[in-house]
Amino acid sequence: MTFPLIQESELSIPEVIKVIEKGLPVSVFAKIRNDLGLPDKELASVIRIPKSTLAVRKKKGRFSFEESERLYRVQRLFKKAVDVFGDIEPARKWLKEKAYGLGDISPLEFAKTEIGAREVENLLGRIEHGVFS
Questions:
Q1: Quick one: residue 86, left, alpha or beta (phi over 0 = left, psi -120 to 50 = alpha)?
Q2: DSSP H stretches of helix in 4-96
Q3: What is d(CA 88, CA 54) in angstroms, rounded to the nearest whole number?
């Protein structure tokens, strides 16, 4: 599986930062949306941009630095979930369903902030290592 955003193994952290600072192309949004099986509105909500702003970004062709960071966050979590669950479909399902370990909030909803995303990553790590969560 290829991920639309950044192949981290091919880039150094400073290079990843430069890509994000430049602003990600709207094609990244479409790829992540399709990979997660979400409508535009739901992914826009996760990355905290209004529908009207999404329309502007689609015309402009790029997301802002902050929006790009949030898209990167979602992509990073999706990749981790695929690694843990071994396939796209169970990862997609897990990210969208309420999770007991997150107070019965879906991982995608919980990951609207960086601190929430880190907790989702921690939960994925516990699942990966067989710790009941």
A1: left
A2: 13-22, 26-36, 40-46, 51-60, 65-85, 88-96
A3: 25
Judge whether 3 lies within some domain.
no
What is the span of the domain harbouring residue 77?
10-128
**Could you say which residues of the chain have pLDDT below 70?**
1-9, 132-133
> Which residue in this structure is represented by tokens 């790029």?
62
Give yes or no for a contact between 101 and 123, defined as CB atoms under 8 angstroms apart: yes
Crossing angle for the helix pair 26-36 and 51-60, to the nearest 10 degrees: 130
Is residue 93, in this structure, part of any structural domain at all? yes
Within 10 angstroms of residue 34's Cβ, the number of other Cβ atoms is: 11
For residue range 77-109, list pLDDT tens digits in order. Answer: 999 999 999 999 999 999 999 999 899 999 999
Report the number of distinct structural domains present in the chain: 1
Closest of 70, 80, 83, 82 to residue 113, by C-alpha: 70
Cα–Cα distance measured from residue 119 to residue 40, given in angstroms and rounded to the nearest whole number: 25
Helix (H, G, I), strand (E, B) or coil at 88: helix
The model carries a pTM of: 0.88
